[in-house]
Amino acid sequence: MRRPTQIECLYLDFDGFFASVEQTARPELRGLPVGVVPFANAERSCVIACSREAKLLGVKNVMPIHEAKAICPGIVLVPQSPDLYRRAHNALLSEISAVLPIDAVKSIDELTCRVEPSHRSDPQQLGRRIKDRIAAGVGPTITCSIGFAANRQLAKMSCKAGKRSEGHYGDGNNVWHPDAMPAPLLSLSLEDIPGVGARMMKRLADAGIATMAALLATQPKHLRALWGNVNGERLWYALHGYQVHAPPSSRGMYGHGRVLPPDHREPAQARVASRLLLVKAARRMRRDGWNAGRLSLWLSLYGKDWAHDVRLPAVHDDQAVLSALGALWKLTALSRSSRIVQVGVTLSDLTRANERQLDILLNDDVPRRKWETTTAAIDGLNRKYGRTLVSVGPWVSQPDGYAGGKISYTRIPRAEDFW
Ligand SMILES: [Mg+2]
Predict the structure, then answer these.
(1) pLDDT tens-digit map of 242-285
(2) How far is the CA of 225 from the centre of ligand 1 (A)?
(3) Is domain 182-249 given the CATH code 1.10.150.20 in the classification?
(4) What residues of the chain score a pLDDT lower than 50?
(5) Which end of the chain is more exposed for a tag (fewer CB within 10 A), N or C?
(6) Is the dihedral of CA 186, 192, 194, 199 positive or negative?
(7) Separation of CA 249 and ligand 1 centre (Å)
(8) Domain 254-418, CATH
């Protein structure tokens, strides 16, 4: 395994991304503590993302609104505008690409780049060029923190470490040169390692590993044993500055979930919402060329959760997934007075759509192919007109316009996810 002697990786993370995009689009919000919320008049909901100004005052992402207001009475609450965030993401990507090639987009507000030899001697200057380009091309309200290091794991940690200091949040430009390692790591705690959560902290503590220094002093095989898989060993090499290549991950599932507006929580309304979410998820799954072997429906009611799944015969058309959803709703046995706070659907057990095995017992090939052709025609029409013009069964618009294009750090929606 290679151990770089120079900076080879850049990790960029936008600061309070959703809120800073709102501030760019709406100048009256600039300089104010802003909290993005799921929908208007959502007093019992959460601040899902907040601006730098709010973060400095102690507000955190995913904080109940009443708590955020107690900490910061002047917080300005703004309902989310997911499609605006998607467009901002694309505009920012093109500005960064004008400076250097993007290696991987990790989420809607994080990305990495390989640092080419010509830039390795002065990464600070490269970071400033990216920031200047964003300020000039998109707007000065959107800032980012950048970390440089020998590999992606260290660059991500360097980025995070440079984001927050005394009385300051964001706009970091932090370089961890291989010559200076591991000193910058030693001031961090184990929970500053991406992927190390409460459970892993406990397991490490039980093994007598409570500090970064103790973790670095272990052997790779020891971490492999503690993790129970190769990721522990991979982490050891990454923290020691080696260039580690992770295997490509395969797709696990397609799903959507949402919190329902307070006056749309009856079972019939939740069912309508779940249909829309499922059609959106199935559309994305088809776009990527997969069939699903399982559908799950989950509901969150006041005080209790309900979840169930059904097997599917490796399908991707709307008729197949919607009829399975109907069957799942029958199982819920909810009374009309039940109130559903959250609803979600997941398509999983994915197999390649071009490798469908015929289910001989089911013998559904002829109708299946008919529905697949129909679904392909519907997708084509909707794409042509840029909205959901045709659907299998009713298509009822949601009161807040939301159906599956939701705010998301890990998935960058496409325009069609908002139809
Ligand atoms: Mg961020």
Answers:
(1) 998 765 555 678 988 888 988 899 999 999 999 999 999 999 89
(2) 32
(3) yes
(4) none
(5) N
(6) positive
(7) 23
(8) 3.30.1490.100
